[in-house]
Design brief:
Radius of gyration: 17 Å
Strand content: 15-25%
Shape: globular
CATH superfamily of the largest domain: Metal-dependent hydrolases
CATH class of the largest domain: Alpha Beta
CATH architecture of the largest domain: Alpha-Beta Barrel
Number of helices: 9
Oligomer: single chain
Number of domains: 2
Largest sheet: 7 strands, parallel
Helix content: 40-55%
């Protein structure tokens, strides 16, 4: 209700581990049709859980549930390195291949692994790609945009020290830009220290509108249009 009152009309709900797949889908099914989409996938922190049975489950869920809009978060995380690099890469590649087979977009998590993530995406030739909670530099942004990947900006865009990220966000083409929360993490600056939630995304949208020198309404229209397309609303 708080999100709706703030003007956030549609939401994407993410389940990042096998044990979360069904609860995520059931949550979406239990709410107003067309207002939510589920995204399911095995996060790099959980890469060791991606067994053959889990892959079969994912494929069945994608086939049987139109409520699912993408596969994610998947990718590589060398910052925390909870799973070995080879385990992460295997899980990443398997899910990229499933996404291509089923014609789904992928939502990518990347920390301290940019070169390997881009190399693997080039190898696997996925085209419908969202770079989740983008925090890369100008060179990494250009690499992604050259490949046609969408950059999703969250609350960190509003942090005072992130002027370089705001400079990146100012130059992303309209058809390749998204807003997100990364809830419950990384709330926008006015809510620092609080649990993040979708209603707060309006603050990120205001910052994005300011750096792009357009109205808040235009940012809402552009990012909503891209979200509707990529997440199969």
């Amino acid at each position: 209700m708080r999100a709706h009152n703030a003007g956030v009309d549609k939401q994407v709900v993410v389940g990042c581990a096998p044990q979360d797949f069904m609860s995520t889908i059931e949550f979406v099914k239990s709410h107003l049709k067309g207002k939510f989409k589920a995204v399911i996938g095995v996060h790099p922190h959980e890469a060791n859980l991606l067994t053959r049975d889990v892959m079969m489950q994912m494929e069945q869920l994608l086939e049987q549930n139109p409520e699912v809009g993408a596969i994610g978060e998947i990718g590589l995380d060398y910052f925390r390195a909870i799973q070995p690099k080879d385990v992460q890469e295997k899980a990443f590649r398997l899910q990229l291949r499933l996404a291509k087979k089923m014609n789904f977009a992928v939502v990518i998590h990347v920390r301290d692994a940019w070169d390997d993530v881009l190399r693997i995406l080039d190898d696997e030739k996925n085209r419908a790609v969202v770079m989740h909670c983008f925090s890369g530099n100008d060179v990494q942004a250009k690499e992604c945009l050259a490949r046609g990947y969408l950059l999703a900006f969250g609350g960190i865009l509003t942090y005072p020290k992130n002027e370089s990220l705001r400079n990146v966000a100012a130059s992303v083409p309209n058809d390749l830009i998204l807003l997100e929360t990364d809830s419950p993490y990384l709330p926008p600056q006015p809510y620092r220290g609080k649990r993040n939630e979708p209603a707060f995304m309006v603050e990120t949208a205001k910052t994005l509108a300011a750096v792009r020198r357009v109205s808040l309404s235009e940012i809402a229209q552009v990012t909503s249009r891209n979200s509707l397309r990529i997440f199969r609303f």
